[in-house]
Amino acid sequence: MRTLLKFSSLCMKTGRQVLAHKTLVKLLNMDPKKEPNKALPTTYPYVSFAYIKHIWKLGKKEEALSRMHKFVATIQNVPPTLSDAEQRSELKHLLARCFLKLGEWNQNMNGLNEQNITQIINFHKLSTEHDRSWYKNEFLCFNITPHVKAWHSWAVINFECVLFYKNKLDEADEPKALRDIPDYMQKGGQDNSSEESDSEDTDDGSPKQIKQSDYSNSILKYAIPSVQGFFHSIALSHGNSLQDTLRVLTLWFEYGHHHSLHDVLVEGIKSIKIENWLQVIPQLIARIDSPKSLVSSINHHLLTDIGKHHPQALIYPLAVASKSSISMRNHAANKILNKMCDHSNNLVKQAIMVRYGVSEELIRVAILWHELWHEGLEEASRLYFGERDVRAMLATLEPLHALLERGPQTLKEITFHHPSTNIKTFQAYGRDLQEAQDWCRKFTQSSNIKDLNQAWDLYYHVFRRISKQLPQLTTIELQYVSPKLMVCKDLELAVPGTYNTSKPIVCIRSVQHTLQVITSKQRPRKLSIKGSNGKDYTFLLKGHEDLRQDERVMQLFGLVNTLLTMDQASSRKNLSIQRFSVVPLSTNSGLIGWVPNCDTLHALIRDYRDKKKILLNIEHRIMLRMAPDYDHLSLMQKVEVFEHAINNTAGDDLSRLIWLKSPTSEAWFDRRTNYTRSLAVMSMVTGIEGNYKHTCRMVMTVLRQHKESVMAVLEAFVYDPLLNWRLVDRSVSDALGVGHHNISLAAGDLCSQGFLKRIYLYVTSHLNQSMYTLHTIVCTGETVVARPEVLNKKALAIVNRVRDKLTGCDFSSVPIDVPTQVDYLIKQATSHENLCQCYIGWCPFW
Fold it and tell me: Where does the source fall among the domains of life (predicted)?
């Protein structure tokens, strides 16, 4: 019987419903279709349960729901004397699953509203009560994944109720902050000040204000059991718990200032392993300076515990926070670092303090003074000549002048600052910059624009000389830019990105003395660190960019990989996303793991066309020949020009070069399949038939099945105070693509030009839905932290958009099946109307 039940389950999963029906009818010894009024037999209750799921799968939802209600009533009335202990245990387990299905199906059919919330919550509650250790019990007939089990579902439904009432509250005309929920709910009426404050809003008897208070109370009412359920889920699960942990953080950071929820959080943190928090350290660090005292106190206590047990995992993130320009954030990070000194003094010193200062020295190497001034003068000129904002211009240049006043510390900085008889005069800029600063100071006193013009004559002179010098920077010697880093030997500090609780710690033995500078727009460095295990670890050392965004993107990719591995169909095809370590060092620099044996598509196509004597930008040349003013054409005209270029070029460069680079047909087939599948995964987490479309459907199916897990990660992005979502206009988004085709073998170099940010949007949106989707980017600024924690409307719109995609509602209000959705996405992604409007640097004609 168990074999046949498993067989019927596989038939349902693969869409062979007729065969599943025949198998279940054989096991039931009756055909319910022919006897619709007859109750299902309870001799073998798991068979009846499987049949009810089968008719739900067929779309007969009302019949399935009705039969499930009757089936549950029958099972509950089984006399306990008729079953032995093992049978009663199995019946309780089955009842737990039945109540869970009742809750899920009711929500599926009627949605979540004030009329049915109580009933749905009650079904989920009964599910947890009938089998409290569901995560630990695996019934032999079914392979049940943890994501659909009782405690997780109980937590999720309560979390959805929180969101439901939060949206209700937000829709109210008069905004009432959730932090003003009356404390009498938590303290039993002991806080008179809170009651008086609340009475001021409600004593007038306004129905609107009373309803707002009810909504606020309901939020806390459901937040508490949600947090409890997530902690139970995390404690009992042995697999991936990232999505549950992120949901806990969302509720914690939003409502943890209420005493009742605070107490639940304190007890819940004690119930789970400290290792569970390692996967969400970026989110914990982001809230290290929370203005809510109860929230920050738990956070600091938890980070201190993590520092005791896993100092290597915490040292780099704390180093970033300790360099923050926000005093509260800086103070909080240093407070935890001081506590870490009690048990890991050498580690903290090696990472941050003066003697070694690995983090500080890596930042010095990532951005030389020449590059700082080049970038600063470029921004200052934009502010002054473009926006006529003198105050912002002076504010941009002020920290750069302050850096010069502190004096040089390395030979490279000395050559920038002071002329010398042994150094060519054109390499010293200190005198000109000092004179320019004097003119700026004169302007602040006189407001005479001539003083600023004098200053800019000098600034422009310096900028031109630096611009000529930077392309000559192809290698960097540590003895000139960071002698401290050169002498670092046999440290306790782990190699960045290598710490793993289940493996021995790989410490830094030494740093390679020569760094290669990649000749791309932002000139990242190729850095090699020798580990204590004798292996060399290669990184891309990047400046000019906040890598904390990329760090969170890797979290999302990790979750997607876990979901793909858990799914049997995608696991058999080894579908996954290539990940690499991301270690922020400051708010504008960091390390990215080097991906070996990796080529960019641009480099491959360039090499192929060079050998074939074909112009690299032949398609663009054809377009400009037909329409020199292409950017100013109407949409229909752009489509005509775009199609003309496509029709007059072969467009088979990639397929030809894969064939030519493959030594055998077997190698060619493997490379072709690998490329097709990896492209499909990234496109769904864009239109071709066969293997590509099949993989797209497979990945989209997995994403939709685990939509709550994906949404948990996305919501963590939205609620992160260090990340602010905004929509940029076309001109700004065009600028983002400038560096997309710079040549580098490092995945991190692609990241520097915004490519990884765009890939992130591919995954969360599961589609390159015309290139306009790429105009939505994540931008980070520490100024956001200083503002009140108000959720950006653009972010909420993105969350709702992604939720629609994960439920199949992105093209209509009615959910569509996965194959249809994938077909629509492919047509949209390959539409010439969309491609012809892309930024030309993205090479949409390829």
Answer: Eukaryota
Q: Does residue 774 surpass a pLDDT of 50?
A: no
Per the rule left: phi > 0, alpha: psi between -120 and 50, beta: everything else, 537 is beta
Strand pairing class (514-517; 475-477): antiparallel
| C-beta of residue 436 within 8 angstroms of C-beta of residue 448 | no
Buried b (16+ CB within 10 A) or exposed e, 268-298: bbeebeeebbbbbbbbbbbbbbbebebbbeb
In single-letter form, the type of residue at position 81 comes to: T
DSSP-derived secondary structure for 670-696: HHHHHHHHHHHHHHH-----THHHHHH
Q: How far apart are the C-alpha atoms of 822 and 641, rounded to whole Å?
A: 28
Does residue 219 or residue 86 have the better pLDDT?
219
Which tokens is 153 given?
A: 């579902």
Retrieve residue 464's tokens.
């031109």
Angle at which helices 242-255 and 259-271 cross, to 10°: 150
Q: Cα separation of 192 and 176, whole Å?
A: 20
How many residues in total does the chain contain? Answer: 846
Least confident of 165-174, 393-402, 598-607: 165-174
Dist. CA 547–CA 226, nearest whole Å = 32
Angle value at C-alpha 787, between 785 and 789, nearest 5 degrees:
80
Residue 592's DSSP bridge partners are: 540, 582
Q: What are the structural domains of the chain?
A: 369-472 (1.20.120.150), 601-842 (no CATH)
Distance in angstroms (rounded) separating the CA atoms of residues 698 and 678: 12
**CA–CA dist 703, 697 (Å, integer):** 10
> For 329-351, what is the mean pLDDT?
91
Q: Return d(Cα 187, Cα 685) in angstroms, integer.
A: 45
Per residue, the 3-state secondary structure of 737-752, as one string, reads: CHHHHCCCCCHHHHHH
How far apart CA 301 and CA 314 sit, in angstroms, is 13
d(CA 388, CA 382): 8
Contacts for 636 with CB less than 8 Å, ≥ 6 apart = none
State how far the Cα of 769 lies from the Cα of 16, in Å rounded to an integer: 32
How far from the centroid of its chain's Cα atoms is residue 407's Cα?
A: 40
**Cβ-proximal residues to 718 (8 Å cutoff; 6+ apart), any chain:** 725, 791, 792, 795, 796, 798, 799
What span, in angstroms and rounded, lies between the C-alpha atoms of 755 and 742?
Answer: 11
Q: What angle do CA 197, 202, 207 make, to 5 degrees?
A: 155
C-alpha gyration radius of the chain: 31
Strand intervals (E) in 398-535: 475-477, 508-511, 514-517, 525-531
DSSP state for residue 420 in the 8-state scheme: B
- Give the whole-angstrom CA distance, residue 22 versus residue 31: 9
Distance (Å, rounded) from C-alpha 285 to C-alpha 306? 12
Structure tokens at 434: 């000092």
SS3 777: strand
Q: Which residues contact 435 (CB under 8 A, 6 or more apart)?
A: 458
Report the phi/psi class of residue 811: left, alpha or beta, with left for phi > 0 and alpha for psi in -120 to 50. Answer: alpha
**Cβ neighbours, 10 Å, residue 623:** 22
Angstrom CA distances, 330 to 301, 302, 325, stand at 17, 18, 7
pLDDT digits (tens, 9 = 90+) for 404-419: 888 888 889 888 876 5
The pTM assigned to this predicted structure is 0.76
